[in-house]
Every structure is written in structure tokens, then in C-alpha cells.
Write a structure and sequence with these properties.
The complex is a heterodimer of chains A (360) and B (287). Chain A is α+β, with helices and mostly antiparallel strands. Helix content of chain A is 23%, strand content 35%. In chain A, the strands form four sheets. A six-stranded mixed beta sheet of chain A has the order 6-7-8-3-9-10, sandwiched between helices. The radius of gyration of chain A is 25 Å and the shape is elongated. Chain B is 78% helix and 0% strand. Chain B has twelve helices and no strands. Chains A and B meet through β6 and α2 of A and α8 and α9 of B.
């Protein structure tokens, strides 16, 4: 059953269309990531569900009930803001208890609920602090507790971990996911951080220019991006343009016949293929043992050392159709101590299963 | 060590001129007046002055001065409360709901009283408030049989004149603190289920308290010492502590009594704020 349904949502701000006919169902209890660059409409979609503005067209249901004519404070949502938006004049206790206090719950009940939430986010004992006396991570937890205490139907997170440093962010990702699992609340979060989206989400939607390009499980969307935008926004991608030869292969200028799985258009049509940088094996020329994988020859033109991995820029021997040089990006785990030297002749190989056919 | 010395020097350059000026123009004359308040007569024109406490004693002996003090405090209270009731909503609208050119135009209207001469402004109120003045005539356009309001030379006339003079302070201080409230706090309160009224009472008002208090300080103190508006608009009902003090300097020429009354007033103001401080500090911590 869908906890939140958005159908044919349209929103314009002046001449700019922030949402173009967006439809998406959020399943009960799932952790759903909205991923896209700034201006893609991901925040607009989240804020539309929250009810901070009315849609120009389309509708939104929460728990099966249309909420289009309900103001924010009657939608029974919980929201965590990018800067946490804790009330600076209230203590941790009163911040967390705010949602219950405005519902007129008795003091004893509020105290008990606040205590329960503090235990959940592991902040017991900090009831009397003011927000400015807390670290960034603690503020984040208070914001989460405050959003959850009213037992909302859906939890909305707007770049929830964006303000934390890297290590703390990774810790909070694990914790956020654990808390979400324990409560089982439907959670929709906005992020521009692809790694965060992959780590946290049960499903991801990739947005660009007010449209949803693709929805799927993280591995699905990463391994099988449908568009060039999705391929390059979520992870990195090398693109190869070619022409369909027959039902199972594409001819790429200078590289010959590349087998492609999946439904190809009719022979002669131009298509774009993508290969992720980590799917390549890179070896000095001649060292490779022949197998049925795709092989292409190139020269190392650049290497970026980043500890756990090395990123190579490899220029292909065969130029592109127009005669210009083609370079591919290749990741290699840092197994050998010495990276390949610039100018080394190499062979790249990859399994046909990792060739992605993109929709034009 | 050298850096610390340079820092101190820079601090001296930055603070020196302003505080030197204040010391010269505020503290010195005030110190002189404080000294006078303990003398029998002002020691000017070769008169012989003896030390005395009788001017301070007069305040406590004569119920007249205490009654006037109450009147002045009540005036200060009434004017300040009216300024809050009128100024806060205006500041809220300017800070959160009006923008661009409209905001500029509305601000100009707020600041206008500052740019007009205080005496002219006050006298112009007499032509509005007097019997058969502009106000009475305007009312008679709507209700031809209306009686004259008879506002001039009454307590309400004083309040009207003072609110006009001091309202801009309240609007400006409230505007500044309301504008500093992050919109996401308002959205957060909304998302947690707060109605408009709850949002206002639980978030907006507490967070703008520093601005309201700033306005209160800027209005309450000058109003309880005011003498021009009470005299011009209040007539015989306009006797306040401020007008009595003014009389001592300009009419009766009893500077020591005038000085003693001013310092008593200053003392009362300080006591009021001292009592309010602990309460306010608790409310304001964290903002």
C-alpha cells in the first residue's frame, strides 16, 4: 500500500516550471531518496508533500487521503530541515515536546514522550540544554526526535546530513537508517549526495529539470541507468556513441563491434552506450590473457592518486569519428603499490554485462 | 605580546572618540547636576550654596511629587503599550509579508516623524484635536450630529502625541528582530502542527522579544521625562514630573530641586529595569 501518492504534480514559480507532471508512489515504510542537482525539483517535490504551497495541478494523498486543501499544520507530517531549524529560545525538552504541546497534550504525557524520544536518539540527560549548547550531530538528533514525537504519517528530510562533517555524516547515516527501521515510518529524503542516496535508500528517484528520470532500487539505478544524465549524475560514466549493427551488437567507431544486451532499436539507429569507470580492468599492453571480454588499447595520460583507489585517464588508440582524441576514465583499486606511469601503453577490458544501453 | 599591544591601541582608536565625547557631553554635565542637587541654591552668579538633602527629602515629604511620579510612570506605561500594540503588527508585516518597493515606501512613512520638527509636529496636533478641529470635522462628515470629542488638553491627547513621536522606535526595533527570525523556524513550527496563533505566541513573539524590549527601553524612559507634549497637548491636565522638572530650570529657577527630581526619576527607572533583568535574562537566553 502506498503511504504517499503524488500524481501528475505540476508547480510553476513565475515562468519557471519546478515540477513537470511528476507522479510517484511512496510505499509504506520505505526509505525513499530524491536525488538530483540543485534546481531539479527535488526540494520542491518534498515541500509540496509537506504542504508549504499548493500545486498548480495534480494531487497528493497521504495515507490514502487527498491533502491538497490541507495546510501544513494539518497534514500530520514530520520534517527535518537542512539547518535543523531548532527553536533557539526553547530547551531540548521543549523543542521535542513542541508538536505535542500545540496539540494540547497534558504535561505528564509530553514529558514521558520526550523521554522516550531522547532515549531513541541517545540524548538522554540533555533535556535542559538550549540548542546553541549542542554539537551539530546532537542538534540533528533533536531535530529528528522533534519530527518523530507526534507519530507522523510520513517523515520528510531536507538534506538532513548536509551540514555535518564527513565522519559524523557516515555515523548519522547508519543511525538514521536504524531508527527508521525500528519505527517503520515512511521516509522521503532529499539529497544531492549520491553516496548518501545509495547508502540510505530502499528506492531512489533521480530528478532533473522538474522531471523524474528514473525510479528504482539503488543497485538497479546505478547498474542500469536509463539516461546519460542518470548515468553521470549517479556515479561516473564513460560514454561511447555508435550505430546499431544487428539485434545484439553496436558498432563504435574505431572499436569495432561491441555486444550489447537488451532491446536495441532497428539496425542503423545511433545509440549511446555507457561503461562505469570501475568496470574496466586495466593492464599493461600484452600482459592480458585473452577472453571473450571487450578489449581496447590506449595510453595512460593521467593518474590521480586518492589512497584507496587510483583514477586513470586513458586515451584510446582509435580516435572518434571526427578524428578527435577520446579519453576514458578508469578506476582501479589500489592493489599494486606503484601506479601505472604516464605514457604506459595499456589494454582496457570489460565484461559485456557491464555495457549499458542508454535511452536517447 | 606585541600583537596584544597593537590590539589595545586599535581598540583605543576605535572607542576613544565616541566615549571621550560621551564623557565630556554627558557625564560632566550630569556630574555637575548631581552635585547641584545636594546644594541649597545653584552656585551661579556669585550665590553662596550650602550642602543639603532637603530637595531629596521634599520628594518623600510631599505627596504631590509622588502623585506626579505615578502619573508619569502611567503615561510611560500607556504610551509604551500602545506603541507595542500598533508597532509590532506593522513590523511583522514589513518584515515578513511586504517586500521590495512597497517596503521602502512604507519605511519612509514610518521614519517621517523623525524628520519633522518636534515642536511643529506637536502644535499641528493641537489643530487636529481642538474642538471643531480636523478630527471633529472629519467625524461630522460621517455623523453630522456628533458632539465635539474635546480631546485637546486631556490625557488622551498627550498619549496620542507621544505615540506619534515614539512609534517609529518600536517599529524599527521590532522589525530588526523579526527579520532575523529564520523562515525555516516558522516552517518547522507549521510542520509540527502549530496553528497561526500558536506559531505567533510560541515562536514569533518569544523570538522578537529582544526587539520589543529594545523599543520599550527607547520609549519608556524618554516618555516619563517628557514635558513638551504634556504641556502643549495636555494643558492643565498635563502636569507631569517632566513638566515640573522643566519648571524648576526655566521658570522657578530652582536648579537643585529640578536636578534632585531628575535623579530620583533616574533611580526609579534603574530600579524597574534591575527588577526586570533576571526575568528577562532567563527568557532571552539562547536567542
Amino acid at each position: 500500500m502506498s503511504a504517499v501518492e503524488v500524481s501528475h504534480a505540476v508547480k510553476r514559480f513565475g515562468a519557471v516550471a519546478a515540477l513537470h507532471d511528476v507522479s510517484v508512489d511512496f510505499a509504506d515504510g520505505e526509505f525513499f531518496g530524491l536525488l538530483g542537482p540543485s534546481g531539479s525539483g527535488k526540494t520542491t517535490l518534498l515541500r509540496a508533500i509537506a504542504g508549504f504551497f499548493e500545486l498548480d495541478a495534480g494531487d497528493i494523498r497521504i495515507g490514502g487521503v487527498p491533502v491538497g486543501d490541507r495546510p501544513v499544520h494539518r497534514r500530520e507530517i514530520g520534517m527535518v530541515f537542512q539547518n535543523y531549524a531548532l527553536f533557539p529560545h526553547l530547551t531540548v525538552r521543549d523543542n521535542i515536546g513542541f508538536g505535542l504541546a500545540v496539540r494540547g497534550r497534558p504535561r505528564s504525557e509530553i514529558d514521558a514522550e520526550v523521554k522516550r524520544m531522547l532515549a531513541l536518539v541517545q540524548l538522554s540527560g540533555l533535556e535542559a540544554r538550549k540548542p546553541r549548547q549542542l554539537s551539530g550531530g546532537q542538534q540533528q538528533r533533536v531535530a529528528l526526535a522533534r519530527a518523530l514525537v507526534t507519530r507522523p504519517r510520513v517523515l520528510l528530510l531536507d538534506e538532513p546530513l548536509g551540514a555535518l562533517d564527513k565522519r559524523l555524516r557516515q555515523e548519522m547515516q547508519v543511525e538514521l537508517k536504524q531508527i527508521q527501521r525500528r519505527i517503520g515510518i515512511t521516509t522521503i529524503f532529499v539529497t544531492h549526495d549520491q553516496e548518501e542516496a545509495l547508502t540510505l535508500s530502499d528506492r531512489i528517484a533521480i530528478l532533473n529539470e522538474g522531471r523524474i528520470l528514473q525510479i528504482g532500487r539503488p543497485a538497479e539505478v546505478y547498474e542500469r541507468p536509463e539516461t546519460a544524465f542518470a548515468a553521470s549524475f549517479l556515479g561516473d560514466a564513460n560514454f561511447l556513441d555508435g550505430r546499431v549493427l544487428d539485434r545484439g551488437s553496436v558498432a563504435v567507431e574505431g572499436l569495432g563491434r561491441i555486444p550489447v544486451a537488451g532491446a536495441l532499436p532497428e539496425a542503423g539507429a545511433t545509440v549511446r552506450l555507457a561503461v562505469r569507470p570501475e568496470k574496466f580492468a586495466i593492464e599493461p599492453a600484452g600482459a592480458g590473457n585473452a577472453n571473450d571480454a571487450n578489449r581496447i588499447a590506449g595510453v595512460v595520460r593521467g593518474a590521480i592518486y586518492s589512497g584507496t583507489s587510483i583514477t586513470y585517464r586513458v586515451e584510446l588508440r582509435a580516435p572518434a569519428a571526427g578524428g578527435e582524441a577520446r579519453t576514458l576514465t578508469v578506476f582501479r583499486q589500489n592493489l599494486a603499490a606503484e601506479p601505472l606511469a604516464i605514457g604506459t601503453a595499456v589494454e582496457l577490458s570489460w565484461s559485456s554485462a557491464n555495457t549499458i544501453l542508454l535511452r536517447s | 605580546m606585541k600583537a596584544a599591544a597593537r590590539r589595545r591601541l586599535a581598540l583605543g582608536f576605535l572607542l576613544g572618540p565616541a566615549y571621550g565625547w560621551l564623557a565630556l557631553t554627558v557625564l560632566l554635565p550630569l556630574a555637575a547636576m548631581f552635585y547641584f542637587s545636594f546644594l541649597t541654591v545653584a552656585p551661579v552668579g556669585g550665590r553662596i550654596a550650602e550642602p543639603t538633602l532637603r530637595h531629596y527629602a521634599a520628594f518623600f515629604d510631599k505627596g504631590f511629587y509622588q502623585t506626579l511620579t505615578w502619573r508619569s510612570l502611567k503615561l510611560g506605561f500607556d504610551v509604551t503599550v500602545l506603541c507595542i500594540l500598533l508597532g509590532f503588527p506593522a513590523a511583522l508585516a514589513l518584515a515578513k509579508y511586504v517586500s521590495g518597493r512597497w517596503r521602502e515606501a512604507l519605511f519612509l512613512l514610518v521614519v517621517l516623524p523623525f524628520w519633522s520638527n518636534a515642536l511643529v509636529r506637536t502644535f499641528s496636533w493641537t489643530t487636529v484635536l481642538r474642538d471643531d478641529g480636523f478630527l471633529d470635522r472629519a467625524i461630522r462628515v460621517l455623523w453630522p450630529d456628533a458632539e465635539p470629542l474635546g480631546l485637546l488638553f486631556s490625557y488622551p491627547a498627550i498619549v496620542i502625541g507621544l505615540v506619534h513621536a515614539y512609534l517609529p522606535y518600536m517599529i524599527l526595533t521590532c522589525y530588526i528582530s523579526l527579520q532575523a527570525i529564520d523562515d525555516s523556524l516558522i516552517e518547522a513550527a507549521r510542520s509540527l502542527g502549530a496553528s497561526s496563533l500558536q506559531l505567533f505566541l510560541r515562536v514569533v513573539v518569544p523570538l522578537s522579544l529582544p526587539g520589543i524590549l529594545g523599543g520599550v527601553l527607547l520609549i519608556f524612559v524618554p516618555v516619563i521625562g517628557s514635558f513638551m507634549e504634556p504641556r502643549i497637548l495636555g494643558g492643565r491636565t498635563g502636569i507631569m514630573l517632566g513638566t515640573v522638572i522643566e519648571d524648576q530650570f526655566t521658570a522657578v529657577f530652582n536648579w537643585p530641586l529640578g536636578a534632585a527630581l531628575s535623579f530620583i526619576m533616574l533611580g526609579i527607572v534603574l530600579v524597574i529595569f534591575a527588577l526586570a533583568t533576571p526575568l528577562l535574562r532567563r527568557r532571552l537566553s539562547g536567542i
